[in-house]
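Predict structure. Chain length: 272.
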Amino acid sequence: METVSENKCFGGKQGVYRHRSAATGCEMTFGLFLPPVSGPVPVLWYLSGLTCTHENAMVKAGAQGFAAEAGVALIFPDTSPRGEGVADDEAFDLGQGAGFYVDATEAPWAPHFRMESYVLGDLSDLVFAAFPLDRDAQAITGHSMGGHGALTLAAKSPGRFRSVSAFSPICNPTESDWGRKQFDAYLGSVDAGRAHDASLLAAAGKLGLPLLTDTGTADQFSDLLRTDTLKAAVAGREDAAVRMQDGYDHSYFFVATFMREHVAFHARHLCP
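Prediction complete.
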């Protein structure tokens, strides 16, 4: 692992690191914030959205100050494999920057686009070996495509995460152009994407951990997010809140506004 940069931040340390991933078959870059407390410390994963890198949330979401107060580490993975020889597409919502947190099975994506295995396997093994983190105290959140990733990875990893949240998540990708196109390309069919659809997983009882989502009523991509489908899937659950925030859009201004609440939500479960 190579250290790209390390900066003091809210009394802790914000680092950026690069490593070779066996899952993606290329070099990957990630950010990690360590709070100013002795380890091992609880961990909150943040998965970013379309076109983003590890840097977007690290710089724009304003999470480090709240995480420092709570004594929680933050991990900011990249959103896809990158580099020469890695497949790509001219469209912003396919290829590099658009990994959708699945393991691709179809050409030309299969050799590198294995973001589920990367986040849950390669990167996890690396960070828990290299940093003072508590493997038994993990939570996960994300924005947009990353919100989809947070919800689905939590659902498919029972017992691993204590809580899950999301900002403007893609809730029902098998019925959205943000999902159908990618599942067809990466997995060979939309039907194969049913195993990666948060609303379907929740309806099947596979998203049973404490859950919080926030989406703005002025989100310009609301028709692609299909928030109501997830809301219906978790209706009646006291530990699941699918909230609509009046007037907010899809931007990081929205994410930053509600970040304190999301970090506090996870801290209640990570630091009981």
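Summary: The chain is about 30% helix and 25% strand.
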